[in-house]
Write a structure and sequence with these properties.
With 477 residues, the protein is of the alpha+beta class. It folds into 2 domains: 3-289, no CATH class; 419-476, Arc Repressor Mutant, subunit A. Helices cover 39% and strands 20% of the residues. The chain has 15 helices and 17 strands. It has helices at residues 53-65, 163-179, 220-239, 285-293, 299-308, 314-320, 324-336, 340-356, 370-381, 387-400, 404-411, 419-432, 434-441, 446-459, 465-476; strands at 3-14, 69-70, 73-74, 77-80, 90-93, 100-101, 104-108, 114-126, 130-134, 139-143, 150-156, 192-202, 212-217, 247-252, 257-263, 273-274, 281-282. Strands 1, 2, 6, 7, 8, 11, 12, 13, 14 and 15 form a 10-stranded mixed β-sheet that branches. Strands 5-4-16 form a 3-stranded antiparallel β-sheet, with no helix packed on it. The protein has a two-stranded antiparallel sheet with strand order 3-17. Helix 14 packs across helix 15. The longest helix is centred in the middle third of the chain and has 20 residues, at 220-239. The chain is elongated. The termini are far apart.
Length: 477
């Protein structure tokens, strides 16, 4: 039987506030276990939570960026369930009156087809701690440093129908959250992760199937593989006449399969009720307007700026702006070396290729300091170093981040632009390889490349290849 796939995502993004959402503990990744904790975030009796205003403003900012309606009144509630990483045995969250309602984002597939994914809500809640399973001691330890970190949950409607659409949606959301700078979205650190709800129904049917939820996926690769696996699993069950159980499943990326964790709870199982320690709070329109005034440019505006002000092509600007970290890096580099087209071309053809070699990491990391990179490109563009030397240096400083100016000086890597010297070296090569001369005269133009290659080998990449190409053609013709 053929089935329609129905997918909805719950995206969790930690906010970049200095302190936690209901206490003054440091909001910082890492640190010695259980050192960023206090009686409030570990739920000791008598400790009272106080909402972090900056976290509320960041939640409003996220809502405005995706077209949500901002509620006038918001309520914090207790979501009751027991897990070891929740010291209080409940989570402070929002159910009835979240800060943001509705909205949506537009995605585009690889063929250019666009689709609007509706949002149900964005609410503010606290993150849980982290369980560390230790086989040596035969038990599990808990680090509560993450407990109480402000977290927004962005809940979509079930508008997606493939892994490709889900990844496109997650990528678009990540891009927006980065641009408005409410989250660093470092998926490898868990500051952006998502739960995927998947169900299947007979093709064309209006009745939705039973859904399964895949928890805490923290890479695009995991999202893709988990969805594809779950589609096959549910299809097999339905084809064999078995029922799909509403449950929560854990994805194991190393084994490329999922495992049942527990039967899925419904909202009533969490016994939501208003937190008695946190009164409903009014969101003043003046606060919303204040947040609106601080909204930075989103990607679409950056693309227009790069095309109109910097002269980049729309395609190049689109690729360059796909990640805010790359945007910041590019703008820093051109502040030192103001040749936007030249810098952009090298980034897109060479630097991004290097970044993509790390397939396990969805977060863009560039280890070369912007000024060092700018100095390298400036030497190459001005003819001080050859293309071959530039690429060798790029690979080296990618690993070491050593000063490229110092390397060029110490190793005497300055390009030879002296036509007379290059001509004399080519004369020697012509005498050394008469057969290649005959090949060229017989119409084999590849012989020119052979001579250039030999020259580069002889000069260790220091000869100016453009000058050499012009000279060897003149000499052989």
């Amino acid at each position: 039987m053929e089935y329609d796939v129905v997918i909805g995502l719950e995206v969790h993004s930690e906010l970049k506030t200095k302190s936690k959402v209901f206490c003054s503990c440091k909001n910082e990744f890492g640190g010695e276990p259980n050192t960023h904790c206090c009686p409030v975030c570990i739920g000791l009796p008598g400790a009272l939570p106080i909402p972090n205003k900056e976290a509320v403003k960041m939640t409003i900012k996220a809502g405005l960026a995706v077209g949500s309606q901002i509620n006038d009144i918001a309520i914090f509630e207790r979501k009751n369930y027991f897990y070891p990483d929740l010291a209080k045995a409940y989570q402070i969250s929002q159910a009835v009156r979240p800060i943001c309602i509705g909205g949506g984002v537009e995605i585009e597939d690889k063929n250019g087809h666009k689709k609007y994914i509706r949002l149900n809500r964005i609410h503010l809640e606290e993150d849980a701690g982290k369980l560390i399973h230790n086989s040596k001691i035969g038990g599990t330890m808990v680090d509560y440093n993450r407990g109480g970190v402000p977290l927004i949950e962005i809940v979509s409607e079930a508008d997606m129908s493939s892994a490709e659409e889900a990844v496109a949606y997650l990528s678009k959301l990540r891009n927006i959250l980065q641009y408005i700078e409410v989250s660093d979205c470092k998926m490898e650190q868990g500051s952006l992760r998502c739960d995927v709800n998947i169900s299947l129904k007979p093709k064309g049917s209006e009745k939705l199937g039973v859904r399964a939820e895949m928890k805490n996926l923290n890479s695009f690769r995991s999202v893709t593989r988990a969805i594809e696996y779950e589609i096959k699993r549910q299809s097999r069950l339905l084809d064999e006449g078995e029922e799909v159980i509403q449950e929560t499943r854990r994805w194991d990326d190393a084994r490329n399969r999922s495992f049942s964790m527990r039967r899925k709870e419904d909202a009533q199982d969490y016994r939501y009720f208003p937190d008695p320690d946190l009164l409903p709070f009014k969101i003043e329109r003046s606060l919303v307007e204040e947040v609106k005034r601080t909204m930075p440019k989103l990607r679409e505006e950056k693309i227009n700026d790069y095309v109109n002000d910097l002269g980049l092509s729309e395609y190049d600007a689109s690729v360059l702006t796909n990640d805010l970290n790359l945007v910041k890096y590019f703008e820093k580099v051109i502040s030192y070396f103001n040749k936007p087209k030249f810098v952009c071309n090298f980034i897109l053809t060479t630097l991004l290729k290097k970044v993509k070699e790390d397939e396990e990491n969805d977060d863009l990391v560039i280890p070369i300091e912007p000024q060092n990179f700018a100095n390298l490109l400036q030497m190459y563009e001005s003819g001080q170093i050859s293309q071959a030397i530039c690429r060798e240096l790029f690979d080296e400083i990618w690993t070491t981040n050593e000063d490229c100016l110092k390397i060029v000086k110490e190793r005497n890597l300055v390009q030879n632009n002296n036509e007379d010297e290059i001509k004399e070296m080519l004369k020697v090569l012509i005498e050394e390889f008469p057969q290649s001369v005959q090949d060229y005269k017989a119409g084999n133009t590849k012989a020119l490349s052979f001579f250039i290659g030999q020259l580069m080998k002889k000069t260790q990449g220091k000869a100016n290849a453009q000058i050499a190409s012009k000279l060897i053609k003149e000499m052989l013709d």
